[in-house]
Design a protein that fits this description.
Elements lengths: L1 H6 L15 E3 L15 E14 L5 E8 L2 E7 L4 H6 L5 E11 L2 E5 L2 E5 L12 E3 L8 H14 L10 H6 L5 H9 L7 H4 L5 H25 L11 H9 L7 H14 L6 E6 L5 H14 L3 E5 L3 H15 L6 E4 L5 H13 L4 E4 L13 E7 L6 H9 L9 E6 L5 H7 L4 E5 L9 E7 L3 H13 L3 E5 L7 H18 L5 E4 L5 H12 L5 E4 L12 E6 L7 H8 L9 E7 L5 H12 L3 H12 L1 H5 L18 H17 L1 H11 L10
Parallel strand pairs: 4-6, 9-14, 9-15, 10-12, 10-13, 11-12, 13-14, 16-21, 17-19, 17-20, 18-19, 20-21
Antiparallel strand pairs: 1-8, 2-3, 2-5, 3-4, 5-6, 5-7
Helix pairs in contact: 5-7, 7-22, 7-23, 9-10
The protein binds adenosine-5'-diphosphate and magnesium ion.
């Protein structure tokens, strides 16, 4: 038990104060069977009529019961022989569980049951029963008991709290009062009252957690500033030579962000900057500007992308823009031949290779850098913490920490950024290059596919091109490729006069490159693809994007995909095909994407609907995720904790330490994103 608890940073009885119930059971009343409501939890007092073991897919004990208002079936899945004999006809049972429907009457699946003795009186509790998270592998009742012991000692504990004035001003309960109220609700209190975000008790504990997290981040940021980096001298001549090659000028936003990056680079502490910019806002040039400065100062720079295709595009762009400045760029792909790879590794180790572009392959063990000074990570939400650390190790031989530039097209809502990226400085490219036309987005039922195909024919006749994105199948690469093939064959059949190509993740990388090159050259007019084209592909002549089973995608992902069109001078369209029937929520989500082109707006909606973990990318949040605070629900408190953290660190170090010990402990990874 001790081991289990320690793993969750529970070391003393006092730690249980901050392991809070996430819901409550109401066992203060007995509900007549006739008053049960489908899907809701309730307590019933029933008498057994009969019971038998049923053998199906899973063995179960079926107990038919009744009270004087109606019939109820109780089904137990795990039971011993002894238990079987307890449910004799005439026995009274107090059961708590969720009401479902079972063969024409109400049923409860594996409710908690208590068998009453012949003349035993039913004693109902007068308060709600707290339910603690089961993730510990320790029963809820046990935790409740321990929390109770801790609460009994609370009066004599020296928990630091805010001043009374402050608490009053912000409508917060004192911490001790708040903890007691949440662990042990008052008589007559409802769950909806306790878990109400306006409840001063809940608010007080939420702010406690948010503050701890914020302080942890700020301390980490301060720590990072203690390490050393190469302070660069900015070479303006080289920068203007880069820009002279472009057929356009930088947007004001690009210029501003580049300025911010250059200021960072001139400092002897490592840059730690996150650049957010909507799809098509021109992040690549911003990255190249930073890369150029590293190289001008005799350092190597790496550019890391999440996919082979994207890294290849970066490489081609780099070749185009940096080679003419006599900078040697190399591309380290997972598919580079053994011989070529050996050559490249030598070049990376001896410093001949100045800019190194690739995917995860960049931090494999055998890749040794001569003088790594800058790392650019594109689309960072797909990279794990672990990989970021690995990259740092790659510069150990220089005795310095590399500058780090992280770029993302997934706009991160403010509350999320403040909580998860507070240790990074943030720049926003809040302006798209001029002449971008808004994209018209349409929702279309899958049954109208034929009309759509006709429209494509007409569109291609005018010289424009089309993307057709296939359903997202998260479980399997292979199934996804297969689905794309099916769509491809159907389109080839329906549109014999078009050149149609198919692109998916299981093709060889040179094959993929060829397919994209052909599409870029307008040799193919319709590109059927899986989500591999999500990031980076740039074909201004493509003006229509069709997305199949749009209801299966995340909103941010749809926004990214849609960003592939609307890059040229012609008006662009995005058709979201959906499968009927569409649930109410699914329809609402698609309407958000139809009605907005503002990535931030969309991401905010995504956050509301799907939660932070999804936005940050897969499982990164696990250990670090907030325990009780909710970024969306508690967004005001997030803002408050942001300004308060700084103040507390300066004015009350002891309380700041206490907060960290309480919520973060030695679990530093809680802070690493
Ligand atoms: P993203 O931010 O999505 O990575 P890119 O860097 O790929 O965007 O840029 C998208 C397109 O916009 C590219 O074709 C690029 O050449 C072009 N572009 C970038 N900056 C500007 C600008 N200031 N004016 C016009 N076009 C630009
Ligand atoms: Mg990009």
């Amino acid at each position: 038990m001790e081991e289990k608890l320690n793993k969750r940073h529970l070391h003393s009885v006092g730690d249980f104060l901050f392991l809070l119930p996430h819901k409550y059971q109401d066992r203060t009343v007995v509900t007549p069977v006739s008053d049960l409501v489908y899907g809701e939890f309730a307590q019933v007092l029933v008498t057994v009529q009969s019971s038998k073991v049923q053998y199906g897919r899973q063995r179960s004990l079926v107990i038919e019961c009744a009270d004087n208002s109606g019939l109820l079936t109780i089904r137990l899945f795990h039971f011993s022989k002894a238990q079987m004999n307890l449910f004799k006809s005439g026995t009274r049972v107090l059961a708590y569980g969720q009401t479902v429907e079972g063969q024409g009457r109400w049923a409860m699946m594996h409710p908690e049951t208590k068998i009453l003795k012949a003349h035993e009186k039913v004693i109902l509790s007068d308060k709600l029963t707290p339910v603690y998270p089961s993730t510990l592998g320790v029963g809820s009742a046990k935790i409740s008991k321990w929390a109770g012991i801790a609460l009994d000692c609370l009066a004599s504990e020296s928990l630091q709290d805010f001043s009374d004035d402050f608490l009053q001003q912000h409508q917060l309960a004192p911490l001790k009062v708040a903890l007691k109220a949440i662990h042990q609700p008052e008589v007559g209190q409802r769950e909806s009252e306790i878990l109400n975000p306006e409840n001063p008790c809940l608010k007080r504990v939420v702010i406690d957690e948010l503050l701890a997290k914020q302080i942890g981040m700020l301390r980490k940021k301060a720590q990072a500033k203690l390490t050393h980096a190469f302070a660069l001298r900015i070479d303006d001549t080289l920068q203007s030579r880069l820009l002279k090659q472009l057929p356009f000028t930088l947007t004001t936003a690009q210029q501003r962000v580049i300025g911010e990056i250059f200021t960072d680079l001139t400092r002897p502490q490592p840059m730690h900057r996150l650049v957010q910019g909507d799809v098509g806002s021109g992040k690549t040039l911003v990255a190249f500007s930073a890369v150029l400065q590293a190289v001008a100062n005799g350092l190597q720079a790496v550019i890391m992308a999440p996919t082979e295709i994207l890294s290849e595009q970066h490489y081609h762009q780099a070749e185009k823009l940096l080679k003419s400045l006599d900078i040697h760029c190399v591309w380290l792909s997972g598919k580079t031949t053994v011989k070529k790879r050996r050559e490249l590794l030598v070049q990376i180790a001896d410093g001949t290779a100045q800019v190194i572009i690739g995917t995860h392959a960049l931090f494999q063990e055998e890749v040794i850098y001569q003088r790594l000074g800058l790392a650019v990570i594109d689309e960072q939400h797909r990279f794990g913490v672990h990989q970021r650390l690995l990259l740092k190790e790659k510069a150990e031989n220089t005795g310095k920490t590399p500058h780090l530039l992280v770029m993302t097209a997934t706009p991160i809502p403010r509350t999320l950024a403040m909580s998860y990226y507070a240790d990074l400085d943030t720049s926003v490219i809040d302006e798209l290059p001029p002449n971008r036309k808004p994209i018209e987005t349409v929702l279309l039922a899958d049954s109208r596919r034929d009309e759509l195909i006709k429209r494509i024919k007409a569109l291609v006749a005018t010289g424009q091109q089309v993307y057709w994105v296939c359903p997202l199948i998260e479980e399997s690469d292979m199934l996804q490729a297969q689905a794309a093939e099916d769509v491809y064959h159907h389109l080839v059949e329906s549109l014999p006069e078009l050149n149609i190509a198919l692109l998916h993740g299981r093709q060889k990388s040179d094959e993929k490159a060829q397919i994209i090159a052909d599409f870029q050259a307008n040799k193919t007019q319709l590109l059927v693809s899986t989500t591999v084209i999500e990031v980076g592909v740039d074909v201004p002549n493509a003006t229509l994007m069709v997305i199949e089973n749009a209801e299966r995608f995340g909103l941010a992902q749809l926004h990214q995909l849609r960003g592939r069109v609307g890059r040229g001078s012609e008006k662009s369209y995005c058709v979201l095909l959906f499968q009927q029937p569409l649930s109410q929520t699914a329809r609402q989500r698609l309407q958000v994407i139809r009605d907005s082109q503002d990535g931030f707006e969309i991401a905010k909606e995504d956050l509301r609907i799907r939660g932070a973990g999804e936005i940050l990318g897969t499982k990164q949040t696990g250990e670090m995720s907030l325990r009780i605070a909710d970024l969306e629900r508690d967004s005001e408190l997030v803002e408050m904790s942001f300004s308060l953290a700084q103040q507390l660190m300066e004015e009350n170090t002891a309380m700041a330490d206490e907060l960290i010990a309480r919520w973060v402990g030695n679990a530093q990874d809680y802070l690493d994103v």
